[in-house]
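By convention, each integer encodes one residue's backbone shape. The lines below illustrate.
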Amino acid sequence: MEKGKISALQMAILLYPAVIATAILSMPGFTAQSAGRDMWISPILASFAGFLAIYLAVSLHNMHRGKTIIQISEAVVGKIPGKVIGFLIIVFYLDTTGTIVRGYSEFIVTSFLFKTPQVVVISSMVFICALCIYGGLEVMARAGQLLFPIFVLPIIFSSFFLAPDLQPKNMLPILENGWLPVIKGAIPPIGWFSEFFIIAFLLPYLSNAKKGMKYGLIAVLGVMVSLVIVHLLVLFMLGDSTANKIYPLMNVGRYASVAGFFENMEAVIMAVWIAGAFVKTSVFYYICALGIAQWLNLSDYRPIVWPLGILLVQFSFWGVHSTMEIGRYDFLTFPYSSAFTQLCLPLLLLVIAIVLKKKKKKSAS
């Protein structure tokens, strides 16, 4: 179905923005609501969900090489139960992709293109992503490589631009209220870190699958470090008011100034957001197309790319209706649905696969 091959490094480059793109803007506000000044510790705790997701995906793939999670489900629990599990996974990714596109459009329309209809912003992004994934996994991986510096470098440079205005004392005292608020603050990021399970759709197409675990863990570590840095930047600039912001990083960007020349870096943040949103939407769009094609036993996923694009536009309007609803969904619903679909279901499949493998060994002996 997918003739292209990518390297483990290209996979890691795809995973990094596919997880962090929608997290850097809103996650600091979510964690601050529960963890307060200790918000920067919450991504560290939540990253264990990412490491677990990588472990589950790689373990399942090692037991059923060359298959994605949709195919593995049928191989482990049988055709009918496997179809049910595959259907749940596909519906989750369809809903998630629609929410990603809607969140992107909400940010663009409310921050920059005030009079542009949302359907235009959403349709244009879906159209560009459809062109990308229609070219195959290799095209998507090269696009991710091309946009990776645009996504990463501005975050690094903004740290230097903001350095004169940072107030490290805002993080003190550390763990004033103990670990419970930090643990509560780690619940929303778990939803994002669980998304690393998308590696289960990419492992069959690696040129060297043995490096999949290594580069997957590196991607998780990179996202964790980046989110800690972003949380510290926001905390040092905004302090306790972080919890009241919808896009805290956007507010921080307005403070950046270097010698009166680099000022008001909202445009830079928008560029980072668009680059990351494009890669993330493309990856999830590709997973939906590939997963549906495998669930329906089609020979190619490309014929359903364009009809699926229309469906994703509809999903973006069905799921949530405003920026506030997206915030409530990301804070109250997404962490649990994401953990269930991308951690609990794969863990159940792995346990069943291990038990069946032991039974086969006993019967053979």
